[in-house]
Every structure is written in structure tokens, then in C-alpha cells.
Amino acid sequence: MKSPGKVLLAGAVAVATVGALAGCSSAGGGTSDGKVHIVVAPVLPGATADALKALADRVKEFEKANPDIDVKAIEYQWTGTTFAAELAGGTLPDVFNVPFTDSKTLANNGQLADITADFKKTSTADKWNKNVLDVATGDDGKIYGIPWGPYAMALSYNREIFTKAGLDPDKPPTTLDEIKAAAKTISEKVPGVAGYMQMTQGNTGGWELTTLTQSLGGRMEEVGSDGKVTVTTDNDQTKAGLEWLKSMRWGDDSMGKNFLFDWSGINEAFAAGKIAMYMSGSDVVGSLMQANGFDQTKYGVTTFPLADDAKAGILSGGNVDVVNVKDTAAQKAAAVKWIDFYRTQPNVDKAAAIKNAETLKAGNQAVNAPTLPLFDKATWEQNQAWIKPYDNIPVENLKPFTDGIFDQTIVPEPSRHTQDLYGALDAVVQAVLTDKNADVDSLLKGVDEKIQALIDADAK
């Protein structure tokens, strides 16, 4: 799922004149005017007037710099249930957005355009964080999209509470065992504070359990060589993760008394000092500041621990701009130029970076909230230097995350019936935290059967 509190660039900085909702590709790519025509879909249906105005301004700017390309921007939202029919009917835009969860599968299915050659012509082609670019890379090694707006799951913690408990806030936990030990210490030394907690409601329980499973090297879904998806929540890593939660809840009593948290609820409890550590998207501090009035000087964040397993990776989410597989070579080239202009350049252009930082700080929003970096460390450091005068979170508090994230393997979310899967797993997490004798094996087998039936029904 997308980090619930993430404000996506498209909504805030938007692009282009919005035409009809029926996202139809500009088949053929050119007309008698000698221009290459493309239809792009950078905003969702229902975009605000301000967003559409900003989009229109950006389209004009792009067309001025590229007079041989004509851009029509529309409101459009990609969905897996309608994609095949739109592809077959020729009604897809030339550029559209898909989530991390679907990009690699669509690429491997031959449903997205190969943009490798045009991508390599962009100024940032050699700068990408390979862990991020991998979500848009097919099994054949070719590039099928350009990612944007990524986040990584991380461990947020309250530095003030760490200090009260006699723990060093500059040396946060680096393993699950260390999280468990720190949670126990905090719950014993700081009355009324849960040492650690995870979300359990509104599909967030399944989201975070999936993060935990993948961090241990497991997967909730497996894709066979024939493309068939098998639900596999009943695996050793998921059970180990649930046992870890169970040991803190029932053995150490370090998870407090409330076990029914959704995203907004756990943020509120953390901001109020009732929870010392919790798992969330790496950029959550922005929402904590805006929605909960949290004092950002107390905020600490580090990478979520990964097991010593070749398949262990941190769950990430985000977006990938992709190109219609039916486009001409000229359209594909124009589409990549557009994506690079609209999505990528603001991350590497000094003037754009500074303007964004000024806007965020003026609105008391997080300027330097840690995210999953799009590019290599040198490019990220340059961007951080540009916005440094506007930083409103102590940089040293973020170092455990920013120093470690470049070394973590990124693993996308399960790709099929993702939210149904998360919702079913909510009940499993709740059971483990509220029933000491919860039958985990039976519960997970039930989830497998329920979600597998949904996936199989899609194939009929």
C-alpha cells in the first residue's frame, strides 16, 4: 500500500491541461503538423483546480522546451481490473502510473513498453538507486518504467523516551532481538509507555506483518514460472515474526494495553509519548508534525532490521510511470522525455529543490523527512545540501536511517489482491496480541485459502 500519510508530488506540484477522462492513446504518434503527440495521465480523477492549473503550466513549460512534442494531459487512474481491456481496446494513455506492486509483473507479461534505450539518454540514467530502479526492471534486465515517490518501511522511535530509559538514542536497535530488549527496558523504566507496537487495523496490520515477513526472508505470495500466483502466508518467516510479537506481548509485557491501532491512531499515540517504537513509512514524521503537533526534535528513525538471509528485504511502496506498449518509437522517446521532465528532474535540479523546500517550510511541513532515495548517495547528498538552509528536522536524528538505507534490498509488496490480503492478516495479528493461545497455523491457512480463491477466480 502507499504510505498513508504521503503527499505525492503529483497532487502538490501537478502537471498539464486536462482533457477528457477517457484516457485514449494518441495512436500513430504524429499528424500533419509534424509533431509527436502523446497523452499523459499525471493526475487522478477529481484533481483540484489548483493542481490542474499547475499541471497546465508544467505542460506549457515542457512544450516550450520541446516544440516538436504535443502533450495532452488527462485525469486517469490505472486499475488492474480494467487494464487488460483498455490495452486491447487502445484506450490507454501513452504515459500512465502503476504502483510498485504491479510494475514488474506487467513488464514480465509484455504489457509495458521497453524504454531502455530512451531511459539511458536521460541525464540521471547512471545515478539511480539500483534497489529502486529494480521495481521497473523486467527479468530480462530491460527498463519498463521510471519510479517516483518511493518510501521504505522503517523503525521510528522517540529519542526522549530512549534517554529516560537509559538507552542511547544515537544507537537504536539493529536487530529484532535488540528491538525486543529495548522495548522491555523502556516498559520497565518508563511507566505508561509501550516499548514497541505495530498497527493492527484497517489493513495496516497485514501491511506491517508483510514487512516483518519480508525482512526475515519470507514472502506472502510466490509467482511460479508459469505466472501462477500462490498465496504463501503460512510460512516459517511469518510464524517467526508472529512469535516475536507474541514474546513481547505475553512474555515481556512491553507492548502496552491497546492492541487495536490503525495508521492515524498509532501516530497519535506515538506523538503523545505513549509508544516508544513502531514500524511505519520512513517519511511519517511529516504527518506527525502536521496532524499531531509532534516535536520533531524528539524524532528518531532507523532502518528496520533485516535477517541474514539472501531473500530478506525491506518492503517499499511507491509509483512507476510507464509507457503504452503499443506506442511508436517516436512516442516512446517523447514519453520518456516527459516523465524525466515531470517526475525526475525536480529531484536533481537545484532551483526546483529549493523552491519545494521553501514551500514546505512556509507551511510548517517536514522539509528533510527521510524517504527512499531515488538516486545514488552522491546525488542525494547534493540535494540535501541544497535544502539544508530550510531543514526543520535535526539531521543527526535521521542518520541511522539515511546511513543505512542504501545498503538495504528493496522488496515490493505482494502484487495480487494486496489489500484483501492485508485485511485478512489484520485478524491474525490481532489474535496473536489478544489471545495467548491463538492458533497461528490455522489462522494463516485460512488466509491462504481465502485469498487464493480470489486470485483463482480472476483467472477464470
Q: Calculate the mean pLDDT score and round it.
A: 90
Order of helices and strands: HEHEHEHHHEHHHEEHHEHEEHHHHEHH
CATH topology of the domain at 152-314 and 411-458: D-Maltodextrin-Binding Protein, domain 2
Secondary structure tally: strands = 10
CATH homologous superfamily of the domain at 152-314 and 411-458, by name? Periplasmic binding protein-like II
The total count of helices amounts to 18
Named CATH architecture of the domain at 152-314 and 411-458: 3-Layer(aba) Sandwich
Structural class: alpha+beta
Helix proportion range: 40-55%
State the end-to-end CA separation: 26 Å
The Rg value, from CA coordinates, equals: 23 Å
> Largest sheet, if any?
6 strands, mixed
Strand content: 5-15%
Shape: globular
As residue ranges, the low-confidence spans are 5-23
Give an overview of the whole structure:
The protein has helices at 9-13, 49-65, 80-89, 100-108, 116-119, 130-133, 159-164, 176-189, 204-215, 236-252, 263-271, 285-292, 329-344, 350-362, 377-387, 395-402, 418-434, 440-458; strands at residues 36-43, 69-75, 95-99, 146-158, 221-223, 229-231, 277-281, 299-303, 314-323, 410-412. It is an alpha+beta fold. Helix 9 (204-215) crosses helix 10 (236-252), helix 9 (204-215) packs across helix 17 and helix 17 (418-434) runs antiparallel to helix 18 (440-458). The longest helix is centred in the C-terminal third of the chain and has 19 residues, at 440-458. The chain contains 18 helices and 10 strands. The chain has a domain at 152-314 and 411-458: Periplasmic binding protein-like II (D-Maltodextrin-Binding Protein, domain 2, 3-Layer(aba) Sandwich), CATH 3.40.190. Strands 3, 4, 7, 8, 9 and 10 form a 6-stranded mixed β-sheet that branches. Strands 1-2 form a two-stranded parallel sheet.
